Amino acid sequence: MPRQILCTVAALALAASAGACSSSRFDTGGIGASARPVPRVARPLPPEEPDLGPGLSSGPVTSAPLAPPPGAAAAPPGPVVANPGGPIVAEASPPPVQQQAAIAPPPPPPVVSSGGRSGVVGGWTAKDATGASCRVNLASTPALDLYKASSTGCANKDLAKVTAWDYRDGEVYLYQPGGTVAARLRPAGGAMDGALSKSGAPLAMVR
Questions:
Q1: Rounded to an integer, what distance in angstroms lies between the CA atom of residue 51 and that of residue 33?
Q2: Which residue from 185, 134, 138 is spatially nearest to 157, judged by alpha carbons?
Q3: 134-186, pLDDT tens digit by residue?
Q4: Is 37 helix (H, G, I), strand (E, B) or coil?
C-alpha cells in the first residue's frame, strides 16, 4: 500500500514538472515573437518604357495629314494667318472663279425676199424712156389663165391698155385685151426692168 502511494506521488511530480517546462517554453516563444521587427511595405516601381527596338523611341505621338491618293491633285496650301492668342490657322484659299465666255448674240435672220408670182403682186410705178410715169397694179385675182391688171395715168398707149398679167420663167408679162403682150419685164430686187413689146423702148417699174 505505501508503494502505491509513492508511485502515485512520483507520477504527479513528473506531471507537474512537465507542465512547468511546457509553460516556460510557450512564454519564451511569446516574448521572442513580440521582439521581432515589423516588415517594411515595398513601394511600387514606376512603369518601365517598352523597348521598341533600335531606331524607335517611345516619345509623344504626333499626328500629321495623310498624303493624297495616287492620281488626285493636292490642294495648294492657303496663306498662313497669325491668330493672336491662339494657334496658327491656315486660311482656306478661295475657289477659282470660272470665267464665262462671252456669248455673241445670234445674227439676225436673213431677209428673204418672196419670189415668183406672189413677189410681184401689188402696185408699181412704171417709167418709160420719155420719163413719163404712171401706176400699174398687178392683182392676184385670176382671169381665165391669167391674172387681172390695171393702169392709171399712163401716157403710153401700150401701158394704158394693160388688163392682165402673168409670171412665166422668171419674167412678168403685161397683156392687152385679146392676149397681146404689151411689155415684158424681169424682177430684180424691189424693181423690174424690161421693154415695151412693139417699140422695144426700155421700161422700168418700181414700188
A1: 46
A2: 134
A3: 999 999 999 889 999 999 999 999 999 999 999 999 999 999 999 999 999 99
A4: coil
Distance CA 81, CA 91 (A): 6
Alpha-carbon 33 to chain mean position:
94
Question: CA 26 from chain center: how many Å?
Answer: 102
The burial class, CB within 10 Å (0-12 / 13-18 / 19+), for 205 is buried
Burial of residue 148 (CB within 10 Å: 0-12, 13-18, 19+) is middle
Predicted confidence (pLDDT) per residue in 30-88, tens digit: 444 444 555 565 566 665 655 555 555 555 666 666 766 676 665 555 555 555 565 56
Give the sign of the dihedral formed by CA 188, CA 191, CA 194, CA 197.
positive
Gap between the Cα atoms of 1 and 189, Å rounded: 185
pTM of the predicted protein model: 0.46
On whether the CB atoms of residues 153 and 134 are closer than 8 A, the answer is yes
Please provide the DSSP assignment of 139-150 as one string: EEEEETTEEEEE
pLDDT of residue 189: 84
For residue 127, list its beta bridge partners.
133, 204
Q: Give the C-alpha distances (Å, rounded to integers) separating 73 from 68, 70, 132.
A: 7, 8, 84
Give the integer Cα–Cα distance in Å for 76 and 156: 90
Torsion 148-149-152-154 (CA) sign:
negative
Question: Rounded to an integer, what distance in angstroms lies between the CA atom of residue 207 and that of residue 187?
Answer: 11
